[in-house]
């Protein structure tokens, strides 16, 4: 097994560990939260699955982007379900049932949404694109549904064990994830630097800002829900985007560095957004007690 394969394996294991540890703190009823709130579910899926492909299409049309940058943005646009986002949403004061039910709903929808979305983008831009539902289902199951479901199941039967192991597993997953990301960034740093220019940073920044704005605008009256949907809309699943791009454009070696550059830009801009939201929520907290979900 070569270094690239080891890094990929470590990334997958780290994500599974982190999501599994999150599941250890979730009640089974939490994932059904959106089932009783169909309007909020519809707004959330509209923001994540419809608005972002439109944004990516506009960005690709407005900017004269290099082919790998355009491919990466379009692939990211149809790749929702960011598996590590719930932890950030919880730290930002998001409502846990909404966060986890949205994660599960988005994961299930992604399996049936992504293949036709890829075909539609291909027809729109004159590209011969394809994506099997099986490959998406495998990735969604491994990185979201199975580890989250296993954690929830264990919590249901052995809550004491779940409480004791949640933090150590989360810490182990976080350390492994950090080491894996550092390894990836080290190997791809030169390629990432080579992408800067020709509107690449502007396009990625516009993509992220538009996602935050759209999610925030239609997230509803609850500030926590607004913040959660903003983060979920701007953040995409890099693993799915890489699968889509590598399936259709295996010769484009700069797609992965572009996705890594997007992850860095998204982390910086989302952190600034969260800082603003925290300051705003502190000021408004006395007036929010009676706002409906």
Biggest beta sheet summary: none
Mean pLDDT: 88
The parts where pLDDT drops under 50 for at least 5 residues are: none
| Category by helix and strand content | mainly alpha
Helix content: over 70%
Q: Give the total of domains.
A: 1
Radius of gyration of CA atoms, rounded to a whole number: 19 Å
Number of helices: 11
Structure summary, number of beta strands: 0
What share of residues are in beta strands?
Answer: under 5%
Q: Report the end-to-end length measured between terminal Cα atoms.
A: 50 Å
The 3D shape can be described as: globular
Run of helices and strands = HHHHHHHHHHH
Top CATH class: Mainly Alpha
CATH architecture: Up-down Bundle
Quick structural summary:
The chain is mainly alpha-helical and 293 residues long.
Sum up the structure in keywords.
single chain; mainly alpha; 78% helix; 293 residues; Na+/H+ antiporter like fold; 11 helices
How is this fold's topology laid out?
Layout: H1 3-23, H2 38-62, H3 67-77, H4 85-91, H5 96-125, H6 133-157, H7 159-195, H8 200-218, H9 223-234, H10 238-248, H11 255-284
Question: What can you tell me about this protein's structure?
Answer:
The protein is an all-alpha fold and 293 residues long. It has a single domain, classed as Na+/H+ antiporter like fold. Helices cover 78% and strands 0% of the residues. It has 11 helices and no strands. Helix 8 packs antiparallel against helix 9. The longest helix is centred in the middle third of the chain and has 37 residues. The relative contact order is 0.18.
């Amino acid at each position: 097994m070569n270094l690239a394969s080891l890094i990929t394996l470590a990334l997958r294991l780290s994500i599974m560990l982190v999501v599994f540890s999150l599941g250890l703190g979730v009640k089974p009823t939490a994932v059904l939260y959106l089932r009783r709130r169909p309007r909020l579910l519809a707004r959330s899926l509209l923001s994540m699955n419809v608005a972002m492909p439109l944004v990516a299409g506009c960005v690709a049309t407005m900017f004269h982007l290099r082919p790998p940058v355009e491919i990466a943005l379009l692939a990211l646009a149809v790749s929702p379900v960011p598996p590590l986002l719930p932890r950030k949403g919880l730290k930002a004061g998001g409502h846990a049932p909404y966060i986890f039910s949205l994660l599960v709903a988005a994961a299930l929808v992604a399996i049936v949404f992504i293949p036709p979305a890829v075909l539609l983008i291909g027809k729109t831009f004159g590209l011969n694109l394809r994506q099997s539902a099986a490959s998406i289902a495998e990735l969604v199951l491994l990185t979201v549904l199975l580890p989250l479901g296993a954690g929830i199941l264990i919590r249901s039967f052995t809550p004491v064990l779940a409480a004791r192991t949640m933090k150590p597993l989360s810490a182990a997953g976080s350390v492994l994830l950090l080491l894996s990301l550092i390894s990836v960034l080290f190997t791809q740093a030169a390629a990432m630097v080579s992408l800067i220019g020709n509107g690449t940073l502007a396009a990625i920044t516009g993509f992220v800002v538009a996602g935050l704005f759209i999610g925030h605008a239609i997230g509803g009256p609850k500030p926590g829900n607004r913040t959660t949907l903003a983060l979920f809309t701007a953040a995409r699943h890099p693993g799915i985007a890489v699968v889509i791009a590598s399936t259709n454009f295996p010769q484009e070696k700069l797609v992965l560095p572009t996705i890594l550059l997007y992850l860095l830009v998204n982390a910086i801009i989302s952190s600034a957004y969260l800082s603003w939201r925290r300051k705003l929520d502190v000021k408004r907290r006395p007036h929010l007690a009676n706002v409906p979900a």
